Amino acid sequence: METSRSRRKSRIKTRPLTGTEKALLVLLGIVLVVWLGIRFILTPQQEKINNLQVDKLELENRIAEMNSVLRREKDIKAEWENLTKERSQILANYFPTLDQAQIIYLLNDMLPADQVDLADYGFTRPASEQIAEMEVKNMSVSVPFAGDYNGIMNMVRAVELSPRRMMIDSLTLDRASDSSLSGSMSVKVYSLEGLADTDPNVIPIVVAENASPGSLFGSFTGYVGNQTATGNGSSTGSQSGTSVGDPTPGVEEPVELKGDVIHSFETRNYEFIPSHSLVKGSAVPTMIADHGRYGLRLEYKILGVEDENRTYIDLSSQNLVFNYPPSELSLMSYSFNYSPGNIGVRILKQDGSTDDIIISNGVSWLGWGKININLLGDTTEYPIRMTHLFYEVAKERDDFGVLIFDKLEVFYSEHFEESIADDKLKLADYTFYEVQYGDTITSISRKIYGTEKFKNEIMSNNEIKSGDVLQVGKILVLVKR
Question: What CATH number should be reported for the domain whose range is 202-211+431-479?
Answer without folding.
Answer: 3.10.350.10
